[in-house]
């Protein structure tokens, strides 16, 4: 299978990245805002993709870092890995991708990402990669429609035609998808400062808070174990040891 240090991370075309994400990400969807894509290769084959781009609403996220400008940050808005790579691959690949960004895009000072503890995981890979936890929020944005399809409220809110017709996203959903509901769970926000002179303006939440709230999750299942321990200590409730508590077919 190869060792973690044998994984090669390099930029790839959006067409290749999007095809992989559609097949391997739990949502089956790509993010249109993604502009920078990295592939994780082992034995010359693609086994993981990380896509970076602009957040859907920068007005809300720019204030998270003091004095941040619109062109100084990126969101890791899609990440998908298959099950071929060895443990700890995701956190290493994120770190390598950030180093590449730092070298080639020096204007980028910080990275934003979210962990979906409704369907996937609580962000173990971000903690292992040096990200800071800045928000634990009960989910109100991830929705499930009566046909089983899952969407984000921003998908509707940013659709100008729908907003002009219905006025707000709830009216649209009630009219066209009666019976929709929010997915039970939490969303966690993580920030990584590439430029260490930058200052996060919101409180940094200790990782232990995840366990205290009982919201740890791995591959869509609640977990038991210490979030501050080695990432090889997690267990899924009702199952055996899971040596890599990161998200395959997941993300962000």
Concise structural overview:
This protein is 24% helix and 28% strand.
Give me the CATH superfamily of the largest domain.
Gcn5-related N-acetyltransferase (GNAT)
CATH topology annotation of the largest domain? Aminopeptidase
- The low-confidence parts are 228-252
- Supply Rg: 18 Å
**SSE string:** EHEEHEHEHEEEHHHEEHEEE
Average pLDDT for all residues = 82
Q: Which structural class do you get from the secondary structure elements?
A: alpha+beta
The protein's oligomeric status is single chain
Instruction: Tell the overall outline.
Output: globular
Task: Name the strands of the widest sheet in spatial order.
Answer: 1-2-3-4-5-10-6
CATH class of the largest domain: Alpha Beta
**CATH architecture name of the largest domain:** 3-Layer(aba) Sandwich
What amount of the residues lies in strands? 25-35%
Largest sheet: 7 strands, mixed
Write up this protein.
The structure is a single chain. The strands form 3 sheets. Strands 1-2-3-4-5-10-6 form a 7-stranded mixed beta sheet, sandwiched between helices. It is α+β, with helices and mostly antiparallel strands and 252 residues long. The longest helix has 16 residues. It contains 8 helices and 13 strands. The C terminus is likely disordered.
Provide the descriptors you would attach to this structure in a database record.
disordered C terminus; 24% helix; Aminopeptidase; alpha+beta; 8 helices; 3-stranded antiparallel beta sheet; 252 residues; 7-stranded mixed beta sheet
Fold blueprint:
Blueprint: E1 8-11, H1 14-24, E2 34-42, E3 45-53, H2 58-61, E4 73-81, H3 89-104, E5 110-117, H4 124-128, E6 132-138, E7 142-144, E8 150-152, H5 153-157, H6 160-166, H7 169-176, E9 181-182, E10 186-193, H8 208-212, E11 217-218, E12 221-224, E13 235-236
Parallel strand pairs: 4-5
Antiparallel strand pairs: 1-2, 2-3, 3-4, 5-10, 6-10, 7-8, 7-9, 11-12, 12-13
């Amino acid at each position: 299978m190869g060792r973690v240090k044998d994984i090669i991370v390099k930029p790839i075309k959006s067409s290749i990245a999007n095809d992989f994400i559609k097949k391997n990400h739990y949502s089956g969807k790509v993010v249109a805002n993604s502009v920078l894509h990295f592939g994780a290769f082992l034995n010359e084959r693609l086994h993981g993709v990380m896509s970076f781009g602009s957040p859907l609403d920068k007005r809300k996220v720019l204030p998270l870092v003091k004095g941040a400008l619109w062109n100084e940050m990126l969101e890791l808005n899609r990440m998908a890995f298959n099950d071929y790579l060895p443990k700890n691959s995701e956190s290493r690949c994120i770190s390598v991708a950030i180093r590449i960004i730092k070298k080639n895009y020096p204007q980028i000072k910080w990275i934003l990402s979210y962990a979906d503890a409704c369907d996937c995981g609580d962000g173990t890979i971000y903690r292992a990669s040096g990200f800071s936890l800045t928000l634990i929020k009960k989910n109100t944005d991830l929705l499930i429609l009566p046909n089983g399809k899952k969407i984000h409220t921003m998908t509707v809110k940013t659709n100008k035609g729908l907003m002009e017709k219905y006025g707000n996203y709830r009216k649209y959903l009630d009219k066209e998808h009666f019976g929709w509901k929010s997915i039970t769970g939490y969303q966690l926000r993580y920030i990584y400062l590439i430029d260490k002179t930058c200052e996060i303006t919101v409180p940094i939440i200790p990782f232990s808070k995840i366990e205290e709230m009982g919201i740890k999750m791995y591959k869509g299942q609640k977990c038991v174990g210490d979030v501050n321990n080695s990432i090889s200590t997690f267990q899924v409730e009702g199952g055996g040891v899971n040596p890599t508590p990161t998200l395959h077919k997941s993300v962000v």
